[in-house]
Every structure is written in structure tokens, then in C-alpha cells.
Amino acid sequence: MRVPGGRAWHHCRVLPVDAVLSIASSFGIDASEPVTLSDSNNVVLWLRPAPVVAKVATGHHHSLALELAVGKHLATLDAPAVPPAGELPRRVHQCGDFEVTFWTYQTHHQGEADPHQLGQALFQLHAAMRTFRDALPSFLNGLSAVDELLRHPGRVPDLPERDRVLLLSALARLSQELAHIGAGTHPLHGSPHDANTLVTDGGIRFVDFETACLGPIEWDLAHVSAETVSGTYDPDALATCRALVSVKTAAWCWANFGHPSLRWHAKHHLSVVRRLMAH
User: Fold this and answer.
1) Which CATH architecture has domain 9-104?
2) Within 13 Å of residue 198, how many CA atoms lie on the same side as its CB?
3) What is the DSSP secondary structure assignment for residue 4, as one 8-state letter?
4) What is the pLDDT of residues 185-212, one digit of tens each?
């Protein structure tokens, strides 16, 4: 059965893996040995032995349609990004309450990416993103979502009240500082940190374009190491963006503090903000 917009509905149970397997089987995909690659912000499954990865929207972005549009565009340019899978229709699939997209499986070599190579890949990605013609949201939308999150104590129940107020104060101060600097606006990945970077036989590939946005180039650079940063940028804007990234990361990780893989990040980035605000 189809619904307006071309999305397909499939009968399935309520778990993300069931949604994925239901859709995959309807297109003849052999996923007899599924492997969970990630389940922190979204659920990501390798449909082994098929060379296909499924992404189920369970996080706070819910921007799979935008991500897929960006992924299709970058694939036409052979940009350093993992392309959508060709084994299924390249659209957002729906099963029950779950939205799912499918991507080409890439073998990831463990270990950190070479900073120089990562810097080159990010430069190439930005060049390709500049030719994307669909509308992109402002990176400020993400900061507004953080502000909304922190204004409701019930959404961050594990975060001490004094630290919730501290993060709100830091967000307001740093946002004002960045506005005063007046950084430029460019199409960006939005969060090209190491968890969204794969080291493959074909080179570095970026994933997770749900955060694609318009913003200062320093916003993307703030997600990578100092050794990776190169090119033309404003050091003051970069420092402010790095601080804002820590505020953002701390807020969302404290909102999901029950997830074991996010607790270290919640505590680490909160401590970073505490140090910054103490000066």
C-alpha cells in the first residue's frame, strides 16, 4: 500500500529491527545475519550478508528526507560520502511508526582518520555541498532546539539544576558572541565528528547528513581536531563554535543519559563548558 509522497507502508511489529527486516524482505534483500552498528541517536543496522545498511530514525533530528536528498546529490559528484543503497528504491520507507533509509555498506577500518586526509576530505565535501540546490536549515535551528530542550527540566532529568542553568547561560552568551563576530554562511555537513566518519579502502567517507545545514565554515571545523583544521577560517569564530558544540553535545547527551554510550560525552562536554564559563 502506498501513501501520498511515494512512501511505502509495510506491515511489521514495533521494534526498529523488525521494521528494517520487514521492508528489506519485501524487496528481496537477504538480511539473515543483521548486525547493529549503532543505537545511540538512531538505530543503524548492517543487513549482512547484503551490502546494505539501514538507518531508522529514533533520534531528535528526524530529517531522513533531507539526508537522503543530500546523499543522492553527493553520490552524483563522487563526493567523499557514503551513497544511498541501490538495492532498494532510494526513498524514505515507512513501517508502522518508523522511517527508514538504506545506504551502501562500507567496511570501516578501526582507528582515527589521518588528520591531513580528513581535512582534505572535508574540503572536498564542502565543495560538493556548495552545488546542492535544495533548501537547507540554518545551523541556528539546532541551537534553538538545544535552548528549548534545556528550558524544560523534565527533558533532562539527570542533569543537575545548576548545570542546566549553566548550559543555558553559556548558550546565550556564546550565540551572542558568534553573532557579533559575523561569520559567513555555507552549506555544511553539520556534525562531521569521528562517529560520522568512516575510514574505507576508498578513502574517508562521511555519513549522517541529517544535520546538513547552512552556517559558518567554522561550525563544521569545530567538530574535528585542531590537527585537521586547515584553509581560511576565523580563529575567534572557531573557538566560539567549539564551545557551542560542547554545549550542544552536553545537552543532548544529558537528555539521553540513560544510554551507556552517551554518559561519558555528557560529563566530558559539561566539564568543558564549566571551564569555559569560569573564565
Assistant:
1) 2-Layer Sandwich (3.30)
2) 17
3) T
4) 999 999 999 999 999 999 999 999 999 9
